[in-house]
Write a structure and sequence with these properties.
The chain crosses the membrane at residues 34-54, 66-85, 97-113, 125-144, 156-175. Helices cover 77% and strands 0% of the residues. It has one domain (2-182). Helix 1 (2-26) runs antiparallel to helix 2 (34-55) and helix 5 (117-142) runs antiparallel to helix 6. It is an all-alpha fold. The mean pLDDT is 82.
Length: 183
């Protein structure tokens, strides 16, 4: 069983990537290049590996593991959406680079906190705050002066980003709860 747990970061991405691979063989609706598969494999494998590395500290403490999973899924969705379609306008738009600062805050905070629950809670709060500030700031910046509202794509991007903020806040609360369980 322990060997299977160690192979999970490799098995998980391969099993997920089999869906678009098989779909691309039987239909024209799924068009992925080899580069798309490589990027997806790195993202999924990296996420699974990071989950194992971070949650290893928790043992069987449920809130810590769930918080770690929420943070990893939220970060994966943020990066995937940004790379696939771009959260603001197009993937080539330079404004999208701001969203990667959220991930950098997470990496720095995780290393700084040494994966301790209290530090991870603060890291999640910082990630939520940075993402919220970027979302609001870019929404104000890209909205034309004559427009009263954002375009439907921009509205979706704002709702998507605020949903990720909510996941980070939930992860922060769960890490806070884990503080009392692990010490």
């Amino acid at each position: 069983m322990e060997k299977l747990a160690k192979l999970w970061p490799a098995i998980f991405p391969l099993s997920l990537l089999s869906v678009p691979f098989i779909s691309s063989q039987v239909t024209n609706g799924v068009v992925w290049s080899y580069g798309d598969f490589i990027v997806a494999a790195v993202l999924l494998g990296g996420t699974a590996s990071c989950y194992q590395w971070i949650s290893h500290r928790a043992g069987n403490h449920f809130p810590y593991r769930v918080a770690t999973a929420l943070a990893m899924v939220a970060s994966l969705l943020l990066v995937w959406a940004n790379l696939a379609v771009g959260l603001m306008n197009t993937p080539a738009d330079d404004h999208n680079l701001f969203f990667f600062s959220v991930i950098m805050v997470g990496v720095i905070g995780t290393l700084w906190s040494q994966r301790r629950p209290r530090g991870m809670s603060f890291t999640m709060l910082a990630m939520a705050a940075v993402l919220f500030a970027i979302t609001v700031g870019l929404s104000i910046h890209i909205m034309p002066l004559s427009a009263v509202t954002l375009s439907p794509q921009q509205q979706f991007s704002v709702v998507f980003c605020l949903s990720i903020v909510a996941l980070y806040l939930l992860a922060a609360w769960l890490f806070h709860r884990a503080t009392f369980l692990l010490h």
